[in-house]
Amino acid sequence: MADVRDNHWVLNGSKTFISNGIHADLVIVVARTTPEGGAHGMSLLVVERGMEGFERGRNLDKIGQKAQDTAELFFRDVRVPKENLLGELNGAFIHLMTNLAQERITIAVAAIAGAERLLEITTQYVKEREAFGRPLAKLQHVRFEIAELATECAVTRAFLDRCIEEHANGSLDAVHASMAKWWATELQKRVADRCLQLHGGYGYMTEYPIAKAFTDGRIQTIYGGTTEIMKEIIGRSLLA
Ligand SMILES: Cc1cc2nc3c(=O)[nH]c(=O)nc-3n(C[C@H](O)[C@H](O)[C@H](O)COP(=O)(O)OP(=O)(O)OC[C@H]3O[C@@H](n4cnc5c(N)ncnc54)[C@H](O)[C@@H]3O)c2cc1C
What we know:
This protein is an alpha+beta fold. It is built from 5 helices and 9 strands. It is elongated, with a radius of gyration of 22 Å.
């Protein structure tokens, strides 16, 4: 919540889970600037490191993505100069709607790239690992697993390529970005799980890349808008 006083805003509130919140020198806060304005009463305020009342909590302990920090941010009577308003007053909703599609497509691209890499690692692994005197790759079940995952990745990539083209020419809408986000990240999760299974016990060992990918990738269906929220956006557009 931010109240306007003279030539600055007075910002109060907090936000849990901010990627790179510890390292960031500059954070963009979505603050309510017109209490009765609903979705159209929020603005983007740029808060700078060192502003009085702007504090960070601890670096949160996650199950994956250990190299990246995730922080809690606290704002107590932070005086934000009026010129730190980003974009239009009460325009946060529109600004976010315009740019969220890009964030979602970025997450989807990381998801398909991650899934394809896991498939590559696992394809190599099942060719090398022997069980009952022959490589795992000789077992029909294993070949079917790899075939299914490869097909799902190829189909997903085709849809994503179309979304990237749309993004490049400025026509990607929120619905298609949401479809790409939930579908590609759920695929990544499925691929990580099934590839880990194909590694057997070694898949559970942190020294194997598949184990790290399993925990690192788990967040993908949660941040940037959960799978359920993506489906809400798509469902609403179809059933309004
Ligand atoms: C590592 C990490 C980094 C993050 N980085 C950032 C960041 O940089 N910036 C930022 O703004 N946020 C960030 N987040 C926050 C993230 O976007 C949220 O955690 C996520 O959107 C889910 O919100 P929530 O945690 O409040 O879950 P909740 O909203 O409590 O959801 C709990 C469950 O209920 C479901 N649910 C909630 N509402 C509905 C609904 N209407 N219909 C159906 N199901 C519903 C959700 O899908 C979920 O499964 C980060 C989170 C994590 C864990």
